[in-house]
Amino acid sequence: MNDPDISLVIPAYNEARFLPRLLLSLAAARDRYAALGGAVEIVVADNQSTDDTAAIAAAAGARVTPVEQRSIAAARNGGAAASRGCILSFLDADTVRIHPETFAAIATALDDPRCVGGATGCTLERWSVGLAATYAMMVPLVWATRFDTGLVFCRRADFVRVGGYPEELRLAEDVAFLWRLRRLGKQRGQRLHRLRRFKVVASTRKFDEHGDWHYFGFLARAPALLFGARFDALADRYWYRPDR
């Protein structure tokens, strides 16, 4: 079997409720890319799920790889290690859907030697005043740093070179990874690329659980991370609690 062009890694912990809708969207996008002669593999990094996450992923044709260390960064890295594509991409399991032309857009972006990697960005599955304010607050940060969310992508060789996602971090590992990638690109005259026409539709489940304005309080504490604060209790409650 030939290696795929693109590997999409999905870290997942008890995502049986949300994963099916994403897998349907990915199948459509993968078929669209296959019609252009490309190949995509879906790798679900099962991070000790106690529900039907693994079975649902396998039934949809995804490769399931177990990752024992309960860490989002470790799950991303474990999925990457099990994958075979020369391009790596990463997406959260509760994403609602991706644009059907996403994989072709990634391949085109990385055909440009000036691109070190990037992300699609996202829109939300629902809107409110609080969600719109949160989104608007993040836009200047994205413009200034070119760090975006959604589906993140890069070349496998560069992923390995920067050391993947930092497993010592229990949160903000995605920001730290893009920082590493951006620094590598700067050394070589490359930039992060934002695929703004191909945004994913992101879940609002955290806002459903914690309130549409909760992110303002969360971000107020974020600068303390720069001074070594770990926020283990916050990480446990927000991402790692056992009943999720």
Q: What does this 3D model show about the protein?
A:
The longest helix has 17 residues, at 129-145. The chain has one domain (6-240): Spore Coat Polysaccharide Biosynthesis Protein SpsA, Chain A, CATH 3.90.550.10. The strands form 2 sheets. A 7-stranded mixed sheet has the order 3-2-1-4-7-5-8, sandwiched between helices. The chain has helices at 19-34, 53-59, 72-82, 102-111, 129-145, 156-162, 173-187, 205-210, 214-221, 232-240; strands at residues 6-12, 40-46, 63-66, 87-90, 115-119, 122-124, 152-155, 191-194, 200-202. 43% of the residues lie in helices and 17% in strands. The protein is α/β, with parallel strands linked by helices and 244 residues long.
Key terms:
244 residues, alpha/beta, Spore Coat Polysaccharide Biosynthesis Protein SpsA, Chain A, two-stranded parallel ribbon, 10 helices, 9 strands, 17% strand, globular
Give the structure's gist in a few sentences.
It contains 10 helices and 9 strands. The protein is α/β, with parallel strands linked by helices.
CATH class: Alpha Beta
Strand order of the largest sheet: 3-2-1-4-7-5-8
- The CATH architecture would be Alpha-Beta Complex
Percentage of residues in DSSP E strands: 15-25%
Q: In which range does the helix fraction lie?
A: 40-55%
Largest sheet: 7 strands, mixed
Gyration radius (Cα, Å) is 17 Å
How many structural domains are formed by the residues?
1
In N-to-C order, the SSE pattern is: EHEHEHEHEEHEHHEEHHH
Number of strands: 9
Q: Termini separation (Å)?
A: 37 Å
CATH topology: Spore Coat Polysaccharide Biosynthesis Protein SpsA, Chain A
- Based on CA inertia axes, which overall geometry fits? globular
Category by helix and strand content = alpha/beta
> Averaging pLDDT over every residue, what do you get?
91
